[in-house]
Every structure is written in structure tokens, then in C-alpha cells.
Specification:
3-stranded antiparallel sheet; 9 helices; 8 strands; alpha/beta; globular; Rossmann fold; 5-stranded parallel sheet; binds 2'-deoxycytidine-5'-monophosphate
Length: about 230
């Protein structure tokens, strides 16, 4: 079913600009947007709220399968995320939620539980899928695949600015450490580790502006974006 619907995957570690590029691309093309990281963050948050241990694979997978979540696009085109009818848009963006997400994302049963939910985002006219394994596991037949990278220092700096802008607390030093730990966990897990698909275009965003990255991505999309 998803084969017929165009899919552009944008994978890579945190802080490489994937989310920004994916959302700009989705807006420009008028396509749907899958923020797969949000699903892992929501699963972790729901598990914590239900008092579960994050390594209780069966229980966390059950939470993932039954996630009561809604993505609502507000008038300013900001997406608000509701978990069990409660607005958790800010709660899921904290570093704690990110680290907890990385822990539950290492559990194969949790990844399996979220697989179909992610594939369901592939609806006409197309979807931009942002994550770690969009091109390798979730949409291996994607029309175009991108893998964004950047040096850890640049990524920590970007994350620091984002968090400060949102009024969230962080120190640069702890961010670098957390980014390295999270990368290590995401890369070394057995289930769908973070890695570029063989047919992905790899773009190093360390010294590129958002517009430059977007132009580069579009230049590889050719006739899909017309
Ligand atoms: O992109 P993000 O920071 O919101 O993702 C949070 C965590 O979720 C990240 O550390 C790894 C995990 N994740 C994943 O394993 N697979 C995805 N497709 C997306 C996110």
C-alpha cells in the first residue's frame, strides 16, 4: 500500500536539523509529516506516567501499541501533541523525555509495536518521515532517502539554543555528554540501529544553513517535487 505513495525519509542523530528540514519540506510540498521520535518520546512519557520501568519490554510495548495520541495542527501550523487527552507538546521535548525515549527505543518489541502506526502516516499526496530508521526499516522502499550528520559540538550547540528558546533548562557540557551517550545507545542497539540506508544521500550539515540544506535536499528530489 505504502509503495504507491511517495515517501521521503530524513534520518540522522539528534541536532542535525532533521526536524526543521523535514517540516519545511512537508510544508513546501503540502505532504504529511511523520515525527517518529515523538512516538518514542510519547511511549516513554506514557510508561513513566503509568509507573512502569523503562526496561520492562512487554509492558512498555503494550503501552506503545495502545498509545492514545493525537497530533493536532494549530492555525499557526504548529503541531500540538496530546497524550491521553492532555497537551504534552512541551513535556516530550525535555532532555529527560529524549533520554527515556532512547531507552525504550532500544527494545525490539517496542519498535515492532510502533511500526504499523508509523507506516499509517503514508497517505496521499505523500509523507516526509523524520527519524533514525525511516529509510532502513520503516520505509525501505522510500522514493528518496536522506541521512543528515553534523559534528557532536555543533549538534550540542544547536540543541542548547533550541532548549533555551523554549525556556527549558540545560548546560552545554551536559548536552554534549548526553548526545554522545544517546548516539552510542542508538547506534549500538540490535534492533534497527541508527545508520544510513545504503541508498541514502548523506549530507553533513555542520557548516550549512537551513536554506542550503533544504536546497541540497530538493536538488535530489527532481521530478517528485516538480
Ligand atoms: O528524534 P528524537 O530526538 O525526538 O528521538 C528521540 C529518541 O527516539 C532517540 O534517541 C532515538 C529514538 N528514535 C528511534 O529509535 N527511532 C526513530 N525512528 C526515532 C527516534
Amino acid at each position: 500500500m505504502t509503495d504507491a505513495i511517495p515517501v521521503i525519509t530524513v534520518d540522522g542523530p539528534s541536532g542535525v536539523g532533521k526536524g526543521t528540514i523535514s517540516q519545511l519540506l512537508a510544508r513546501k510540498l503540502g505532504w504529511h509529516f511523520l515525527d517518529s521520535g515523538a512516538l518514542y518520546r510519547l511511549t516513554a512519557l506514557a510508561a513513566l506516567r503509568h509507573g512502569l520501568a523503562l526496561d520492562d519490554e512487554a509492558a512498555v510495548a503494550n503501552i506503545a501499541r495502545n498509545l492514545d495520541v493525537e497530533f493536532l495542527t494549530a492555525e499557526d501550523s504548529d503541531v500540538r501533541i496530546f497524550l491521553e487527552k492532555q497537551d504534552v507538546s512541551s513535556d516530550i521535548r525535555t532532555e529527560k523525555a529524549g533520554n527515556s525515549a532512547s531507552k525504550v527505543a532500544a527494545l525490539p518489541a517496542v519498535r515492532e509495536a510502533l511500526l504499523q502506526r508509523q507506516r499509517d502516516f503514508a497517505e496521499p499526496p505523500g509523507v516526509i518521515a523524520d527519524g533514525r530508521d525511516m529509510g532502513t526499516t520503516v520505509f525501505p522502499q522510500a522514493t528518496r532517502k536522506f541521512f543528515l550528520t553534523a559534528s557532536p559540538a555543533v549538534r550540542a550547540e544547536r540543541r542548547y539554543k533550541q532548549l533555551k528558546e523554549k525556556g527549558l533548562d540545560a548546560t552545554l557540557h551536559s548536552l554534549i555528554e548526553e548526545i554522545e551517550q544517546r548516539d552510542e545507545r542508538d547506534r549500538s542497539r540490535r534492533a534497527s540501529p541508527l545508520r544510513p540506508a545504503d541508498d541514502a544521500v548523506i549530507i553533513d550539515t555542520s557548516v550549512k544553513s537551513i536554506d542550503e540544506v533544504l536546497d541540497e535536499v530538493l536538488s535530489h528530489c527532481g521530478e517528485i517535487v516538480r
